[in-house]
Design a protein that fits this description.
The chain has four helices and no strands. With 107 residues, it is mainly α. It has a domain of 65 residues. α2 runs antiparallel to α3. The chain is elongated and about 60 Å long. The chain starts with 11 loop residues before the first helix and ends in a 14-residue tail after the last helix. Keywords: Coiled coil. InterPro entries: MSMEG_1276-like_NTP-PPase_dom (IPR038735).
């Protein structure tokens, strides 16, 4: 028996069953779910930093985006609202496309 004790994608139990294996799951309450999503965000971020190839890095970014969307929902938003907020910030302050690296400011 392998212990995981972590949040997994909704389709994972069916995938395990399709391989002729069994698993035990439970549904988390909201507070526990938020904590599990935060842990998953750290896990996926670490996997992104370990990714060495562009394709693998993009896969990890897709995983991060899925976790971020779930977090947006538990915080009262959704992916549409999240995108609107991102776009507003980009319109006000710009994005990161120009690769600007701030050295210092003068007082």
């Amino acid at each position: 028996m392998t212990e995981y004790n972590k949040l997994v994608r909704d389709g994972i139990p069916a995938l395990i069953a399709s391989q002729g294996k069994t698993c035990a799951t439970r549904i988390m309450d909201t507070g526990e779910y938020i904590q599990a999503l935060r842990a998953k965000l750290r896990e996926e971020t670490e996997e992104y930093f370990r990714a060495e190839q562009d394709k693998h890095a993009l896969e990890e970014l897709a995983d991060l985006l899925e976790v971020i969307r779930a977090l947006a929902e538990v915080h009262g938003g959704d992916s549409i609202l999240l995108e609107q907020m991102r776009a507003e910030k980009a319109a006000q302050r710009g994005g990161f496309n120009n690769r600007v690296f701030l050295l210092h400011t003068e007082e």
